[in-house]
Amino acid sequence: MRVLVVEDEQLLADAVATGLRREAMAVDVVYDGAAALERIGVNDYDVVVLDRDLPLVHGDDVCRKIVELGMPTRVLMLTASGDVSDRVEGLEIGADDYLPKPFAFSELTARVRALGRRTSMPLPPVLERAGIKLDPNRREVFRDGKEVQLAPKEFAVLEVLLRSEGAVVSAEQLLEKAWDENTDPFTNVVRVTVMTLRRKLGEPPVIVTVPGSGYRI
């Protein structure tokens, strides 16, 4: 899942981004509304965690732009105000969910994951294919009933492959969904991660390389 965090309190923004990355999400961070509009014009995000009171361009206007563009991106709006009228107004603008500050990080993570599931065709909470069972909420992976310990990027790649339901996923698509914009697209990070993921999942191999196209399970 790829997430954009838009928050002008830089310590909070960076802390949220760090926490979401530990949950195997690819996260970009910006600190004002103008930068947010620039990012959503370039990258495809599953979820935008959007502070309402932003400098340069207000969060309301960023949300309106996402809706105007008809993007499948879901918006979780943050605000320091807990007034019901503010929550209603934010939802009427086009936000998909609303979370007042201060918030528990566990709740934010749960809401981001729930919104991420709504950006594509509905899928079961636990993904299963070829003897592999992946639970995004518990961050658990099993193969044939045996638990497999994965690093965050390995988990993210496996989740993307399972969500494709047998379709081929290109290296570029994996890079977009599992890494943030600071990753050099010309590195072999995808190939290396898939290689270590294959090794950890064990024999027989379940990740198939499709020459010239990408990978599938």
TrEMBL record:
Transmembrane stretches, start-end: none
Segments forming domain OmpR/PhoB-type: 124-217
UniProt cross-references to Gene3D superfamilies, sorted A to Z: 3.40.50.2300, 6.10.250.690, Winged helix-like DNA-binding domain superfamily/Winged helix DNA-binding domain (1.10.10.10)
GO terms for cellular component: cytosol; protein-DNA complex
Coiled coil: none
GO biological process terms held by the UniProt record: regulation of DNA-templated transcription
Entry keyword set: DNA-binding, Phosphoprotein, Transcription, Transcription regulation, Two-component regulatory system
GO molecular function terms attached to this record: phosphorelay response regulator activity; transcription cis-regulatory region binding
Residues annotated as domain Response regulatory: 2-116
Residues annotated to bind DNA: 124-217
Signal peptide: none
4-aspartylphosphate: residues bearing it: D51
Role according to the record: Member of the two-component regulatory system CutS/CutR, involved in the regulation of copper metabolism. CutR suppresses a defective melC1 gene, encoding a putative copper-transfer gene, probably by altering copper metabolism.
Name used for this protein in its record: Transcriptional regulatory protein CutR
